[in-house]
């Protein structure tokens, strides 16, 4: 374990790989696993091209730890599970009341309550892929004009050190193959199959990859198969697992992008007014 080292590339030398680090350190190994996330330098070198591309959406994500204060304002149905809302002007908002203490975990798995409960939110905004600036709270306030006051309050009262910005990337689910031919360099997670978090599946997919890679190492070290054969199986499994998840995760991202057009904006505004009118009507007649 060499914390703080940045891998910049590798050199294949027969059955061995030499890992190159920015510090000038070089490490020889039997198997290199790129687990360096979206924009992976290692996976890009192995594939001979970037393994994902920006999809024109950017995000501002935050964690509000004053759960009781938000609970008093948020609609009760949001406590049932995560939600993704869309509005005009190409805006989406992910919301989740996150409480690890109430999560459905295996009782034998150890202490469940490792994090404080919080309200998690993620604002999704359309942005030309070439635009470099990431969003901030000022933009969040401007783009969510007309949204429920409690949702805007949630964002505006989140402490700045609990807010992060990010770009949405995705690998191409129609590419003929993921990655590259099996040898002694492989990858897991976002490094090889980036998908937007709108499907809530990317972290789990990375963990499944890691579990399968352990199987590869076991089979190779026990002498059951050679490394290239075990890795070829692994690449096949990763490919089959990730493709549909990328497609599914791109679905909601596409809806957000579509609401940025004037026609979709007008339709959404009309639908919101209709719902508001219906609520006013039913309140006044009951
Ligand atoms: C706001 C947000 C919300 C999300 N919500 C969800 C969700 O609800 N559900 C879900 O499943 N997923 C979600 N995701 C996605 C999830 O976080 C990722 O899919 C997951 O973290 C990918 O894991 P990974 O190990 O492949 O890469 P990462 O977690 O990105 O880890 C890569 C690591 O490699 C390090 N690194 C990078 N380059 C180098 C280098 N050259 N050398 C050495 N180290 C390097 C990085 O510092 C990092 O520690 C969300 C992501 C974001 C940004």
From TrEMBL:
Residues 5-222 form the FAD-binding domain. InterPro entries: FAD-bd (IPR002938), FAD/NAD-bd_sf (IPR036188). It comes from the Bacteria. Pfam families: FAD_binding_3. Gene3D superfamilies: FAD/NAD(P)-binding domain. Its cofactor is FAD. Keywords: FAD, Flavoprotein, Monooxygenase, Oxidoreductase. GO terms for molecular function: monooxygenase activity. This is FAD-dependent monooxygenase. It comes from Nocardioides hwasunensis.
């Amino acid at each position: 374990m060499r914390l703080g080292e940045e891998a910049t590339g590798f050199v294949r030398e027969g059955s061995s790989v030499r890992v190159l680090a920015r510090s000038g350190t070089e490490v020889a190994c039997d198997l290199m696993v790129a687990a360096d996330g979206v924009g992976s330098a290692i996976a890009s070198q192995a594939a001979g091209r970037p393994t994902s591309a920006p999809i024109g959406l950017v995000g501002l994500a935050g964690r509000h730890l004053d759960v009781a204060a938000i609970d008093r304002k948020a609609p009760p149905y949001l406590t049932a599970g995560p939600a993704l809302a869309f509005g005009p002007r190409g805006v989406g908002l992910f919301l989740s009341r996150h409480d690890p203490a109430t999560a459905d975990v295996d009782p034998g798995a150890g202490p469940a309550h490792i994090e404080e409960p919080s309200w998690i939110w993620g604002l999704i905004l359309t942005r030309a892929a070439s635009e470099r600036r990431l969003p901030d709270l000022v933009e969040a306030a401007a783009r969510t004009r007309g949204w429920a006051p409690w949702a805007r309050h949630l964002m505006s009262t989140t402490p700045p050190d609990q807010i992060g910005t990010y770009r949405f990337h995705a690998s191409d689910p129609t590419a003929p193959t993921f990655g590259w031919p099996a040898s002694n360099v492989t990858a897991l997670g976002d490094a090889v199959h980036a998908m937007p978090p709108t499907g809530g599946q990317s972290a789990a997919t990375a963990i499944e990859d890691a579990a399968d890679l352990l199987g590869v190492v076991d089979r190779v070290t026990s002498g059951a198969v050679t490394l290239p054969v075990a890795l070829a199986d692994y690449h096949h499994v990763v490919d089959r697992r990730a493709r549909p998840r990328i497609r599914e995760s791109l679905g909601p991202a596409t809806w957000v992008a579509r609401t940025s057009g004037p026609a979709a904006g007008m339709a959404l505004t009309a639908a919101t007014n209709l719902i508001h009118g219906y609520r006013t009507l039913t309140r006044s007649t009951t």
